[in-house]
Write a structure and sequence with these properties.
- There is one protein chain.
- This protein is of the alpha/beta class and 233 residues long.
- The protein has one domain: Bira Bifunctional Protein, Domain 2 (BirA Bifunctional Protein, domain 2), CATH 3.30.930.10.
- The protein is 28% helix and 30% strand.
- The chain is built from five helices and twelve strands.
- Strands 1, 2, 6, 7, 8, 9, 10, 11 and 12 form a nine-stranded mixed sheet that branches. The chain has a three-stranded mixed sheet with strand order 4-3-5, with no helix packed on it.
- α1 (14-35) links the parallel β1 (2-11) and β2.
- The protein is globular.
């Protein structure tokens, strides 16, 4: 059974967390490259990490995103106490902020399975199972990564968890953002994930009460460990 090292970074600047991810990611990749030249008995195992955090208000644009999906200019960003980054993950534009649980699994998928689609479906399933514990039925929307409520009804469909990942040499980074007690007004400054006809929501909005974020984190970790058949340490 693989082990995954867990760290809760707390409230952390987006760039600081991104740099930390890159450092761990690069270390794993370098180990894999180095292992290619070693004899089988001297190969080093590659570690796996799961980071949780929250960010101050920030908008991030992925590789396939469009700049015009950010609907505010630099001055308006300052007025809203928000920052903006163009980053090296898949997907379009999204928002991160307080009250949102952001998860960054940095895994060597050679330790699990080499299938990016399966990896994304597992992350979605982790969130779906977590929401189910709160009595919320959620699922997937065809052709759109993430977790949705009422995905089959265009009039009601709303996204509760966004996802965007990067993978190289089967090593992953970036991940998911689950709206728990998030200020949804900030999504009004973007076209979230480039999707113009569907809304966003959060766990507290759906349940009508503030949610214990530490409790949600424990549930996410439990379902992550079940799905990836790993031990979180």
């Amino acid at each position: 059974m693989q082990t995954v090292k867990f760290t809760d970074l707390g409230l952390i600047d987006y760039k600081e967390a991104w740099d930390h991810q890159e450092k761990l990611f690069d270390q794993i990749v370098q180990t894999k490259v180095s292992n290619r030249t070693k004899s089988p008995d001297s190969v080093l195992p590659t570690p796996n990490y799961l980071l949780f955090c929250e960010h101050p208000h920030v908008y991030t644009l992925g590789n396939s995103g469009k700049q015009e999906h950010l609907l505010v200019n630099e001055q308006q960003l300052k007025e809203k106490n928000a920052t903006y980054y163009k980053i090296n993950r898949g997907g379009d534009i999204t928002y991160h902020g307080p009250g949102q649980i952001v998860g960054y699994p940095i895994l060597d998928l050679d330790n699990f399975f080499t299938d990016i689609h399966k990896y994304l479906r597992f992350l979605e399933e982790m969130v779906i199972r977590t929401l189910s514990e709160y009595g919320i039925e959620s699922g997937r929307s065809a052709g759109e990564t993430g977790v949705w409520l009422d995905a089959g009804d265009p009039r009601k469909a709303r996204k509760i968890c966004a996802m965007g990942v990067r993978a190289s040499r089967w090593v992953t980074m970036h991940g998911f953002a689950l709206n728990v007690n998030a200020d949804l007004n900030y999504f009004g400054n973007i076209i979230p994930c480039g999707i113009v006809d569907k809304a966003v929501t959060s766990l507290d909005k759906e349940l009508g009460r503030k949610i214990d974020e530490e409790e949600v984190k424990q549930k996410l970790k439990k379902h992550f460990a079940e799905l990836f058949e790993c031990e979180i340490v």
